[in-house]
Design a protein that fits this description.
Radius of gyration: 23 Å
Strand content: 15-25%
Structural class: alpha/beta
Distance between the termini: 62 Å
Shape: globular
Bound molecules: flavin-adenine dinucleotide
């Protein structure tokens, strides 16, 4: 029997590693199985553009069955990892759970939003990590414009037009900037609403935003956002969001219909349901070879793992796609070396910097020490991500979306009923 390679997670690390393995494995050398809760990989850097309607959401995900045609795919949740017994507990979306045995395990479940026990947050907030969240936010923001334009109740109108984002890393800044840009664009169709009625808050606990592009570009971005009328509160924390009533620790209070939580990520909790070695931050302790410390045949990379940064001794690689994708090359090759008794290589990559989009034709970037801003940074952002988005099929679709957007205004239709598709039919069945 050929060895069984099990990959937990079909995101950046899982999908790219599986792609490389299926290409490099000899016939019959090993069998690869990928477990993921979703049947697709999400290209997260495109979520803000999907939320803003510049990209079709289906084009920012990659169907795993199409690209991993030589792997076995299991759709459902991994619920526990037993390294000593070499099994992973797997629960399909319906039906009985079972144990999946492996000879080589790759742990790549990524991360989840890092939340705090703030009253009302769990009930009123939403994260920004999945394509479903991006689609929901787009529909939700447009629905708030529609509501505000149609109501005569001033309090409801004010609440609907108040949008709060907590956390000013690139997910929060890009999501807010893109959605504000979209809402601003949509206003031309809402003569009932005035631009200064829309209130956008960015709440950040530290004294800077967008640390990924460095302090100077972070300050520049802050000025840009404030010039657009966005109320950026630095050194401020969300204290409560009970029933949508926002309370900040600087004493400000108001009602808001939209609360987006983008205050960082933490390793996926599945790694704690295991006998894997875990560090104080909840990350799997990995080596520079992307093996797990002290465990034979188990590898880890991406957001869930503490991978030593050989370019900055004593530090660990940051949880971002730049590292995740590059790690997969070393990871897959080391899995092959493990199977073939070869020599494993080390992961070494100096962070190249970041690009961020702040709405149509607006951006900021710091790459290899070069600082870019405005339309040039936006263009570099698009070119870079187009080169990175997996598969030629997705690249072409994304390019077509962008090209169409050059000639036609973006769609401003809110398909709010998507989250309640049975509502209409239920109404019909009740009308006897
Ligand atoms: C909005 C946003 C924008 C971003 N922009 C950038 C950017 O511009 N540049 C950059 O470098 N990085 C960016 N990132 C970060 C980047 O996307 C992540 O660092 C990267 O996705 C990490 O890869 P991963 O494979 O570790 O995790 P993921 O890609 O998240 O993959 C994890 C996979 O595991 C699956 N999974 C998790 N738990 C289980 C389980 N128990 N059972 C089954 N399946 C499970 C998940 O469904 C998921 O598919 C962004 C992130 C976000 C949210």
């Amino acid at each position: 029997m050929s060895p069984r390679i099990l990959i937990l997670g079909g995101g950046y690390v899982g999908m790219y590693t599986a792609l490389r393995l299926q290409r490099k494995l000899r016939r019959g050398e090993a069998r690869v199985t990928v477990i993921d809760a979703d049947s697709y990989m999400t290209y997260q850097p495109f979520l803000p553009e999907a939320a803003a309607g510049n990209l079709e959401p289906r084009h920012v995900v990659v169907p795993l069955r199409r690209v991993l045609n030589r792997c076995t795919l299991l759709s459902g949740w991994a619920t526990a990892i037993d390294v000593a017994g070499r099994t992973v507990d797997f629960s399909p979306h319906r039906g009985e759970s079972r144990k999946i045995e492996y000879d080589v395990l790759i742990v790549a479940p990524g991360s989840v939003s890092r939340t705090l026990p703030i009253p009302g947050l769990a009930e009123c907030g939403i994260g920004f990590k999945t394509v479903e969240e991006a689609i929901h936010l787009r529909n939700h923001v447009l629905a708030q414009l529609e509501l505000a334009a149609s109501t005569t109740d001033r309090a409801i109108r004010r609440e609907a037009l108040t949008f709060v984002f907590v956390g000013a890393g690139f997910a929060g800044v890009e999501a807010l900037a893109e959605l504000e840009d979209m809402a601003h664009d949509a206003l031309r169709y809402y003569p009932e609403l005035k631009a200064d009625e829309l209130r956008w808050y960015l709440v950040e606990a530290t004294d800077r935003i967008l640390p990924e592009v460095g302090p100077e570009m972070g300050r520049w971005t802050l000025e840009q956002l404030r010039a657009r009328g966005i109320d950026v509160r630095l050194g401020t924390k969300l204290e409560s969001a009970k029933d949508g009533h926002i309370v900040l620790d600087d004493g400000t209070e108001f009602d808001a219909a939209t609360l987006v939580w983008t205050a960082g990520v933490k390793p996926h909790p599945i790694v704690r349901h295991s006998d894997l070695p875990i560090d104080a931050k909840g990350r799997v302790k990995a080596t520079s070879r992307l093996t797990v410390e002290g465990v034979d045949g188990v590898f880890a990379a991406g957001d869930c793992a503490a991978v030593p940064d050989l370019t900055h001794p004593g530090e660990y690689t940051a949880p971002n796609a730049q590292h995740a994708v590059r790690q997969t090359k070393v990871l897959a090759d080391n899995v092959l070396a493990h199977l073939r008794g070869g020599k494993m290589g080390d992961y070494r990559h100096a962070y190249a910097g970041s690009v961020a989009s702040l709405g149509l034709h607006k951006g900021v970037a710091q790459i290899y020490g070069r600082r870019l801003r405005g339309p040039l940074a936006w263009f570099v952002h698009r070119t870079y991500h187009l080169s990175r988005v997996p598969t030629v099929n997705r690249k072409v679709r994304v390019l077509i979306d962008w090209t169409l957007a050059l000639f036609f205004r973006r769609e401003i239709v809110a398909l709010g009923a998507l989250s309640e598709p049975r509502r209409e039919f239920e109404l019909a069945t009740r009308d006897k």
